[in-house]
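SEQUENCE-TO-STRUCTURE ENTRY
===========================
Question of interest: how does this chain fold, as expressed in backbone structure tokens?
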Amino acid sequence: MTIGVLAQKAGVNVETIRYYQRKGLLPEPPRPPGGVRHYGPEVVDRILFIKRAQYMGFTLREVGELLDFGSRGCGKVERLATAKLGEVDDRIADLRIIRRELEKLREQCREGRVSSEWDLVQTVIAGELDPGSERS
């Protein structure tokens, strides 16, 4: 299939495919003399894997490490997944704090304790989550 068909089947644009090729995440098939490059159906699955891994929080560098499975086996995958789980746990903890802060802000508004922009500013900056922290 051509790059345009590949992009359509994988739900990405052509530039995304070219970017993944530059990053070494996708092979670039040889161009036949005077012809158009053709991609096999397995490349669709590889793109879907890349997109899903990104959704799971992996960077493209980490996705490349995952795709290098053959030379490193499951040990590397396990280490990457464990590190990512730690990041997810940190984010969940931050989201719980954000939820508490939003509930507190909503309650203060309902009770009429936020009556000006200044009150709003003071209420928000008095929260638990430090936007400058390493985890944010």
Remarks:
- DSSP finds seven helices and no strands in the chain.
- The mean pLDDT is 88.
- The first helix runs from residue 3 to 10.
